[in-house]
Amino acid sequence: MSTNFKTCLFGGFDREDVISYIEKTARESREQIDQLSASVEALTAENGSLTTKVDELRVRAEQYDEASQALAALQLQVKELADRAEALAAENKTLRSQAEEYQSLKDHIAEIEISAHRRTEEFRANAIAKLHELVSEQQGWCAERRAQYAAAHESVCQQIRAAQEALGTVDLSGFDQMEEKLRDLADSLDK
Questions:
Q1: How far is residue 106's CA from residue 108's CA, in Å, rounded to a whole number?
Q2: Crossing angle, helix 107-168 and helix 15-102, to 10 degrees?
Q3: DSSP 86-101
Q4: Domains of the chain, each with CATH number or no CATH
Q5: pLDDT tens, 79-126?
Q6: Residue closest to 60 by CA, chosen among 131, 156, 142
Q7: Is the separation of the CB atoms in 1 and 184 below 8 Å?
Q8: Which of 47, 48, 131, 158 is deepest in the core (most CB within 10 A)?
Q9: Which 3 state secondary structure label does DSSP give 40?
Q10: Is the full-model pTM beyond 0.85?
C-alpha cells in the first residue's frame, strides 16, 4: 500500500492527494467490512438452520427410542401369549387324559364325556387358531414397525452426517485476509 504523494512548494505533501488517499482507503475498508459482515450474517443464519435441524434430529431420535420401547413391550406381550398358549396346551392335554379315563364309565357318562371332549376340542381349536392369528398379526406388526424404525434411524443418521459435514466445511480464510489487510492499513497509517 505504498503511494507516491505530490510534494508542495513549501515542503510536505499535497494535502488533496493525502485526503484523497485516506478517503479511498476508508471506502475500501468499509466495503471489506460490509462484505465480511454479510458473510458473518450468512454463516450465522446457516448455523441457526443447522442447529434447528440437529434439534429436529434429536426429537426424531427420542421418538425412535420410544418406539423401540413400545416394540420391546409388544415382544414381551407376544412371549406372554406364547406362554399362555403353552399353558392352555398343557391344560388341554390334562383334560384329554381325564376324558380317556371317563370313557370306561357307563354309556350315559361316556356320552356326556364325549360331548365335553368335543367342546374342549372346539375350544382348543378356536383358541389355537386365535393364538396363531394373534401371533401372525403381532409378527406382521413388529416387522412393519421394525422397517419403519430402521428407515427413520437411517434418515436421522444421514441428516446428522450431513449437518456434521456442513459444519465442518466452514471457510474462515476471509477473516485471516481481513486481519492481514487491517494490519497493513495500520502499518501504513503509522508511517
A1: 5
A2: 170
A3: HHHHHHHHHHHHHHHH
A4: 15-168+177-190 (1.10.287)
A5: 999 999 999 988 888 888 776 666 565 778 888 888 888 999 998 889
A6: 156
A7: yes
A8: 131
A9: helix
A10: no
